[in-house]
Amino acid sequence: MTMTTDHVERTHAATYFRIGAWCWIATGTGHTIGDVFLRAFPRDEDKAIDDIMRASSFDLMGLHRSYYEVTMGFSLAMGCCMVFVGILLLWIAKLTARQDIRPAAILGLAMSAVALTICALLEPPPPIVLFSAACVAFGLSVGTAVRGANR
């Protein structure tokens, strides 16, 4: 195998990996913006649910919180964490540019597959589509890296 072919295969694996990482960033960004938008401009049905959640409270580890506060806190934290996971994945891609990206791609595929499974059971289409794309991208990264490493 020529050095050029090896370089091209590594470049493809890294490109697919970065696409998977950007899917995480897009999902987290969309989730966070959606949360803020739905709270700033709630529909009547959402207002009714929010009012019920605000009226229902409980003690959590010594703090008195409403269901609304806890749910929004988890939701906003999750959206931000998805963005930061994507950023970490991009950083990993940069650090492994001249090395075998396969182990990181396997981890990205596993994380995306778990997220896709949860979203398929509980969420609307946007995160399902984005995590499906992430699975495909990380899978292609694994496959390209394996082909390049086995020659």
From TrEMBL:
Protein origin, superkingdom: Bacteria
Keywords of this entry: Membrane, Transmembrane, Transmembrane helix
Transmembrane intervals: 70-92, 104-122, 128-146
Listed name of the protein: Uncharacterized protein
Biological source species: Antrihabitans stalagmiti
